[in-house]
Amino acid sequence: METYTRRQYCRWPCQCPRAPPRCPPGVSLVTDGCECCKACARQRGQSCTEADTCDFHRGLYCDYSGDTPRYEIGVCAQIVGVGCVLNGVRYKNGETFQPNCKYNCTCINGAVGCVPMCTNSRPPLVWCPNPKLIKMAGKCCEQWVCDDSRKIRKTSPRHISSAAYEGEDEAWQKNCIVHTSPWSPCSKTCGLGISTRISNDNDQCRLLKESRLCNMRPCEVDITQHIKPGKKCLAVYRANEPMNYTISGCVSKSPYRPKYCGVCTDNRCCTPYKSKTIEVRFQCPDGTEFSWKIMWINACFCNLNCRNPNDIFADLAHFYDYSEIAN
Q1: Structural contact between residues 292 and 279, judged by C-beta atoms closer than 8 angstroms
Q2: Is the pTM of this model over 0.70?
Q3: Are the C-beta atoms of residues 283 and 253 closer than 8 Å to each other?
Q4: Contact between 124 and 109 (Cβ < 8 Å)
Q5: DSSP 127
Q6: CA distances from 104 to 59, 84, 127 (A)
Q7: Cα–Cα distance for residue pair 14/190, rounded to 1 Å
Q8: How far lies 276's CA from each of 150, 213, 298, 326, in Å?
């Protein structure tokens, strides 16, 4: 049987033109699939490869099914109810499953949204200097104990609100238990990326995938130059002058002065712990307008808990009640 050698479309080191290409209005300028150069994203019906990527802003993906058995050249197609793959297991769109006893998950159009099942365990607060999360025999969910007493305190001190220990009941709306998952980590560590979540907060009580743009930090700015002498971290960076967001040649109608998460010179990483979602109106050169939801960072925290951006369970584990506050 003749062996087929798959063609490599990416070449290293990268060789990029000095100036990025000028894309037609409405066509995204993205980093190519080789993570090398800026390129105009391929549109619906156009051919695509591992280097020539489809326009993810428009919900397109590269369908290689027509190029069997090579799977080299595909066609950009619209994502419509695609399934999900988690830990090597494929799930159908709309399928609900439990990857383990701690989480109940649903596949929604390629995104996996999970609800933690272990919601009753709360860490000891000010009265316990050495809290410890331990595995209880015969139980799925860990529980907090204090190293000093080895007992779980059931009552809260007078100066701590009892609301901190109450279960988070989902809201009821027209016979619908409303649930909105946390926003996923930004797909890019710098520059414009995408963050997603699932929610059934709508008239049909249907779980739908929501998207917003996010920008953790600008790629072109060396934030380490702004760290104060004697310090190792800059938690939040903010440019001196306002700027306009740009998507595929379309510019935001209003200028903004956003905050970004900074960087550290040691092993710590800075991530947002307070943010909200704003809606930004864009105007294109041809006069058309559209709106995009964008993550607006309010505060960042630098710590050693540098999580894998692809770990969808990271924000749900243990301290999920006190993680990023997102609206």
Answers
A1: yes
A2: no
A3: yes
A4: no
A5: T
A6: 26, 15, 33
A7: 19
A8: 39, 12, 7, 5
Q: Return d(Cα 121, Cα 165) in angstroms, integer.
A: 9
Q: Which two tokens stand for residue 317?
A: 């584990």
Q: Please list the pLDDT of the chain residue by residue as tens digits (327 residues).
A: 556 677 788 888 888 988 889 888 778 888 898 888 999 999 989 999 989 999 887 778 888 888 877 778 899 987 766 778 888 888 887 678 888 888 888 777 777 777 777 765 555 544 455 667 777 777 888 776 666 544 444 443 333 333 333 333 344 455 677 778 888 888 888 888 898 888 888 877 777 888 999 999 999 999 999 999 989 899 999 999 999 998 888 999 999 999 999 999 888 888 888 899 999 999 998 888 899 999 999 998 887 766 654 454 555 554 333 333 333
Please provide the DSSP assignment of 140-170 as one string: SS-EEEETTT-S---S--TTS-GGGGS--PP
Q: Which parts of 183-288 are beta strand (E)?
A: 192-199, 208-215, 236-238, 246-247, 250-252, 259-261, 269-283
From CA 168, how far away is CA 151, in angstroms rounded? 24
Task: Please work out, in degrees rounded to the nearest 5, the angle formed at the alpha carbon of residue 92 by the alpha carbons of 118 and 68.
Answer: 135
